[in-house]
Structures are given as C-alpha cells and as structure tokens.
Amino acid sequence: MITFHIITLFPDACKPYLDASILGRAQEAKKIKIKYYNPRDFTLDKWARVDRRPYGGGPGMVLEPESILKAAQKALGRKKGEIYFFDTSGMQFTNTMARAAAKKVKDIVLICGHYEGIDARVQKILKAKKITVGPYTLTGGELPAMLVIDAISRQIPGVLGRFDSLEEERTASAEVYTRPEVFVWKSKKHRVPKVLLSGNHKLIDEWKKQL
Fold first, then answer.
1. Cβ–Cβ contacts within 10 Å for residue 119, how many?
2. Which of 139, 4, 144, 125 is nearest to 70 (CA)?
3. pTM of the full predicted structure?
4. Which of 80, 95, 101 shows the shortest CA–CA distance to 167?
5. Helices 142-153 and 21-28: crossing angle, nearest 10°?
6. Distance (Å, whole) CA 8 – CA 68
7. DSSP label of 118
8. Are 98 and 125 in contact (CB under 8 A)?
C-alpha cells in the first residue's frame, strides 16, 4: 500500500475528488492511503499564520519554511519516502515516473504551495524532487497533487479493477463509442464506425492506430 502525505493549507479542496469514485474505492480496499497535514497546525504563531513577506520585495506572501518542514517530519518520521515539490521549473511528471513510483515507493509526500510560493530552503533541506504537471502556473499545489496521486494510483494492480484498463497497456484510440449504434441528435443520425461492429480485432486495432 502506498501512503500519500499531502501538505496543504486547504485539505478540503482535495478530499471531494480523492474520496470519490476509483480513488475512494482504492482507499476502502487499502490499496492506497491519503493523509493530510496543514502547516497551520505546526506553527507557534498564535494566529496560526504561516505566510510572510518575501525578502527582496515583490507582491504577495511566501509560505515560511519551519511549519512545512515540521509537517514533512510528522508525515515521514524515520521512514524513507519520496518528496515532491511542485515548481514550474521542475521535471515534467510523466506516466513513466508514475509507474516507477507505484512499484518502489511506499510513502510519498506532496508539498502544495500557495500564494507566491514556498521558501526555497524547504526543497533544499528535504532534497525534494522538483516536478511540474505542465507548462502553466496554477493558484496552488492541490490540483497538481491530485493529478500525481491519480496517475500513480492507477498504476497499482487492483485499483482499476482490470489492469488492462490502463490506456498505455493496450491499443488506445482517440475515439470511443458505446450504445446506441445509431444516435439521433436534432434529426441528424450519428453512427458508430462500421469497423467497430465487424468483430475483426485486427482491423479494429489498425483503425485505432490510424486516428
């Protein structure tokens, strides 16, 4: 079982998605476990404040290092795990990385930034892997964390029910169809491609590759 440790100021932003559908069933089946750590619970500030103004000036606030480091320490204790630090300059997260993590890692810590980011010393102290989920900037690290958890979890046997449900393990198609064979929308008929009705799997695979 893989345990995902999410360090976030907004755990309620993650729970509805991660507790639903396939990932929710994966937790119930003890294929994965998801735990949350709010940096506000690890600060000595009486107002539970964890953001500070950046050195050198600039807009916005930066998340302080101490509360996040304490949260990471609580998450792993003496265990060894993989720590992901989301950064647009990081390595692109891929299915290959997800597959490798699913096979060899038991504990994964995901540090979710917010506002103008996290004090850079956190990544350096923890020797966290800097990764990105795409060439764009988001308002927080919660969505990237959920993407990574989803990508890794579906590589674990039993999470998808049938392991051949993995798109990368079969001849995938950019187009999929289901019943009815002829679908009528605004008086116009839309048909399933005839090759999919042929029962000839060789021709079907060739059709899929051409899309």
1. 19
2. 125
3. 0.86
4. 95
5. 60
6. 9
7. B
8. no
